[in-house]
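Long-time lurker, finally posting.

We've been working with Cytochrome c oxidase subunit 1 (Mya arenaria) and I want a structural starting point before designing mutants. I don't trust myself to interpret raw outputs, so I'm hoping someone here can both generate the structure tokens and explain anything notable. Sequence follows.
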Amino acid sequence: FSLWAGLVGTGLSVLIRLELSMPLSLLKDFQLYNLIVTSHGLIMIFFLVMPMMMGGFGNWLVPLMLIVPDMAFPRMNNISFWVLPSSMFLLFCSMFSEGGFGGGWTLYPPLSSNMMGHSGAAGDFLILSLHIGGASSIMASLNFYSTWGNMRAGCHPFQRVPLFCSSIGVTS
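Top reply, 14 upvotes:
Generated this for you. Predicted structure of Cytochrome c oxidase subunit 1:
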């Protein structure tokens, strides 16, 4: 799933770079460009970085580095990963309902303006997708904290925890 999201995000990145090289030559629509920029950011963060790069470390690599290999692999059934497909489905629903939704680098300000607001289902789908993705990252952070704080060897003081594990604790 994460590899597929990485390929989709990379494809969207190529479209963004092509459009930036010659504005309005490829897409011919600012709304579509904003949709692609928004989708690229959300797909790469919530569906590639969180589950694969960070979630994978939190599930199996950090316990291995904390010298508790028996706890590394049963922790892979993390609920934070399983809510991501529904978030991605809602993101795609927001693209295809009504005129689509895209806010570029700012997702919420266009929703608050009467002139730029989306009163229909497209904005609702996007907001719900963002909230589900945010809940997923909060659950993953709690998983990292519990892994970092509770799954270390009893004789292992916090000062002797490997630096990589401490960086996971700080970033979560």
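Before you design anything, note these points.
The chain has one domain: 2-166.
The chain is about 65% helix and 0% strand.
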